[in-house]
Design brief:
single chain; alpha/beta; Rossmann fold; about 40% helix; binds 4-nitrophenyl phosphate
Amino acid sequence: MKKIIFVCLGNICRSPMAEMMMRDLISKSRLNDDIIVESRATSDYEIGNPPHPGALSELKKHNILVQEHHSEQITRNDFDTADLIIGMDHQNIDDLKRSAPSADVNKIHLAFESVNKNKVIEDPWYDHKFDRTYRQLAEVLPKWVDRLR
Ligand code: 4NP
């Protein structure tokens, strides 16, 4: 059993979208029993809050199963139990590397790492471009499924 945790700043836009899209992908690849998918925030800004309505409607538009979710900040236990910790942008990666126990730093990766090290899953918080978030995640998530196979 492998565990992957997607991380963004607030855990209400990008990382819950990544979590639910990844669950959809692993279920289609019949890997449900092999991979655990979760998501977390680097910040405490949105703790307890549900995903942004724009994120939920984008998921529904693509027939992705929307599950109950409330923002949680990443913890020491998450760093210990994850196999892969995937940040959406460079700020996420810097924040994660600063708070990770040194033994777990090598679990931290940028979502676009294997495609383009300079590319990021852009934050839809200000411009509400959730279609861009969906498109960018749809490009990178199959690569993480392959990595976990
Ligand atoms: P996310 O988006 O990191 O993709 O969940 C954001 C959510 C909240 C804030 C910023 C980005 N905020 O500043 O509260």
